[in-house]
TrEMBL record:
The keyword DNA-binding does not apply. Keywords: Signal. This is NitT/TauT family transport system substrate-binding protein. InterPro entries: SsuA/THI5. It comes from Methylobacter tundripaludum. Gene3D superfamilies: Periplasmic binding protein-like II (3.40.190.10). Residues 1-21 form the signal peptide. It comes from the Bacteria. SUPFAM superfamilies: Periplasmic binding protein-like II (SSF53850). Residues 52-239 form the SsuA/THI5-like domain.
């Protein structure tokens, strides 16, 4: 009888344990191969969390991630708040929580005669992305303050970031406006940064650091999972901090950087850690609204959609 009672208690404990494990919220995260989100995910998974369980689903590129999110194949991706606002304007309930404020940069060869935006006049400029790339639109606005029409005065070459990197290495372009990690890799090889996205914004009167990239997910999905979602964001911040202060933590994710040499690894870490979000509140969100208005005008509504203002609810309140 005593044995049966102990057996029954054991079964109850096992059932309780299994029930607790089952209560973990599963977050299906769409992640691009070789993206920096991989770095944080790896660091998070080194320290299993009580409130959530990550299920990583690989996506080929940013557009594939957007399709996966909108179709319900994943719960969350990393994207930008301008896209989120355009979706909300059509009735969707996607929302954004900041991931990084690292931004792209304008780089040139070390011995280049280009030392300022004005020096781009008459030069060949490689631009990662397309004509609606945010940094390209904002760089044009900054140049206009110096009476320079970049759209008319430079020879433009648009392409994917790897292609732009090859173009500048082969001297087919004189300068490259590219995404931050490609700029960092070029810097590690001796290229020189002229200006980055944050300094472009400062030149345009935006003093606050406004993250361009963040986690995007459905507000309706998150509302019933607040504790797990907030735990995930907290774990992500802790993981990033660990990668920036702990050499041991950084060593573990070096293979994910796809960088074989120490100078590149070091520069990637430096630029990645500069993207740490120190402040995210009303001031930064109001600044985002001003950036939106600028981009709405600069892109002739093509980037933002028809809404004149940033949509309410674009930014997730973690409270």
């Amino acid at each position: 009888m005593k044995f049966n009672a102990l057996f029954f208690i054991s079964l109850c404990l096992l059932a309780s344990s299994g029930s607790y494990a089952a209560e973990k919220t599963v977050i299906r995260l769409g992640v691009q191969a070789s993206g920096t989100v991989d770095w944080e995910v790896a660091a998070i998974q080194d320290n299993p969390q009580a409130d959530f369980q990550l299920e990583i689903q690989r996506v080929a590129n940013a557009e594939a991630g957007k399709i996966a999110l909108q179709s319900g194949a994943v719960d969350m991706i990393v994207s930008d708040w301008i896209w989120v606002s355009s979706l909300r304007a059509t009735g969707s309930d996607f929302t954004f929580y900041p991931y990084s404020d690292t931004s792209g940069a304008l780089v040139v060869a070390e011995n280049s005669p280009i030392h300022s935006i004005k020096d781009l006049n008459g030069k060949r400029l490689g631009i990662a992305g397309g004509e609606l790339d945010k940094n390209w639109l904002l760089l044009q606005a900054l140049a206009k303050q110096e009476q320079l029409d970049l759209n008319a005065s430079v020879e433009k070459v648009f392409g994917a970031p790897p292609l732009i990197s090859e173009q500048i290495k082969q001297n087919r372009v004189d300068a490259a406006l590219t995404y931050w990690h490609f700029a960092a890799k070029l810097e590690a090889q001796g290229y020189r940064q002229i200006i980055d996205g944050r300094d472009i914004l400062k030149g345009l009167g935006i003093q606050e650091n406004v993250p361009s990239l963040g986690y995007v997910f459905k507000e309706s999905w998150a509302m019933s999972r607040k504790q797990a979602i907030n735990s995930f964001f907290k774990a992500g911040k802790q993981a990033k901090n660990q990668l920036c202060i702990s050499d041991a933590a950084w060593q573990k994710i070096i293979p994910l950087t796809k960088a074989d040499d120490l100078p590149t690894q070091t520069k990637l870490r430096q630029r990645y850690c500069e993207g740490n979000i120190e402040h995210w509140g009303q001031e930064q969100q109001q600044a985002a609204g001003r950036i939106y208005t600028m981009l709405h005008t600069l892109s002739n509504k093509q980037l933002t959609g028809h809404s004149d203002t940033l949509q309410p609810g674009t930014f997730w309140s973690a409270e």
